Amino acid sequence: MGKTLRMAVLALAALATSACASSDADRPFTTESRGSFEEPWAMAFLPDGRLLVTEKPGRILLVDPADGSSAPISGVPDVDYGGQGGLGDIALHPEFSSNRLIFVSYAEAGDGNTRGAAVARGRLNLADSGGAIADPQVIWRQTPKVTGKGHYGHRLRFSTDGYLYITSGDRQKFDPAQDMDSNLGKIIRLRDDGSVPDDNPFSDRGGVTAEIWSLGHRNPLGFDFDTEGRLWNTEMGPAGGDELNRVLPGKNYGYPIVSNGDHYDGRDIPDHDTRPEFEAPQLWWTPVISPGDFMFYTGSLFSDWHGDGFAAGLSSKSLIRIEIDGDTAVEAERFDMGRRIRAVRQGPDGAIWLLEDGDKGRLLELRPRG
What we know:
It is a single chain. It contains 2 helices and 25 strands. By secondary structure, it is mainly beta. The protein has a single domain, classed as Neuraminidase, CATH 2.120.10.30. The longest helix is centred in the first third of the chain and has 15 residues, at 3-17. The protein starts with a helix and ends with a strand.
C-alpha cells in the first residue's frame, strides 16, 4: 500500500475509533477560565499553590489561580522573539523550596541573523506581588546557532534523581539531527549546573556530543517521565507522522532518514519499518495532532486516569489522553477544546491545567464533573 493511500486509511480509522468530546457537556470534566495571557507558552506551580506562566514575547507572570490575577517577574533574560521563537519553558529545581532555583528556556540571538535555544537558571525572589530572578546564568545553548525561527524544542524536565533533560529541535535544518557534533535534533541530559553527567551515553566523546541522551528528533515539544520513571516524548512529524516515543539512552529515532510522514513538498521519506536500526514510535498520528506539550497524570482527582499520558494538541485543538501498557501506547480519548492547546500540567491537588495558544490564550482548570 502506498503511503498516500495508507495515510487516508489511517485518517478514516482515527475518525472511527477515537472518541472526541466536542462540547463541555460531553466531557468528564468541567472547564473554568483562570485568566488570559499574551501568547502563553508554559507554566509551573509553586509550593504555595501560585503558578508561574511564561509568555513568548518575553514575560514571566506570577499568577494567583483563584482569580487569575497576575504580577510580573523581573530579571528575565533577553529573548529573540519571532516565528516560533521567544520565551519558552519554565521549571523549578527539585529542591526549589530550599534553594529557590528556577530554569527558563528561550530563543537567543546570535551573530549574522542566527539564533538558537538557551537555558538559564537563577534564584527566584518572591514578593507579595511579583518578584525577580536574581543572577540568571546561561547553563546550556543549542550548537550551532543557525538562521530561521522554527523548531527550537526547549522543553525542560527534571528526573526524580535530579538531572535536567532538555528537548532540542532540529531548527528545520534536517541533517543536524544526525550530526553528533551538533546538539540540534537531540534530547539532552545535564546536571543542574549545566555540566555533563559521567554516565551519559556519549560522555567519553566530550564537547556537545557528551550532552546527548538520544538523537534523530525533529521538533520535540513535549516529554515527561511515567510512573515507573521512564522517559517519553512527543514530537511533530513533517506532513504526517507525529510521534510518541519511549526515549532510551543513546538511541537514534531516525529523523530525517525515516519518518511516518512525508516532506511538505510531497517528497517521500522512508517509513520507520524500512530501517529497523532506528527506534520506531510507540504511537504515531496521521492526520497530525501537532503535540505542543506532554505530561503523565499522577494524581488521584481523576482516579481512572492515573498513569495516563496527556498530549496538548495545537492544530488538532484538543487534549489527547493516551493509555500506556508497558511499551504499548494507544490513544484512548480526544477532547475537542475549540482552541490550540499549548501546555498541559497537573496542579497541586490533581486538577489538570491547560494553556491555550496565541493572543489572549486562557489558563484553564479542568476538574471532574459532578
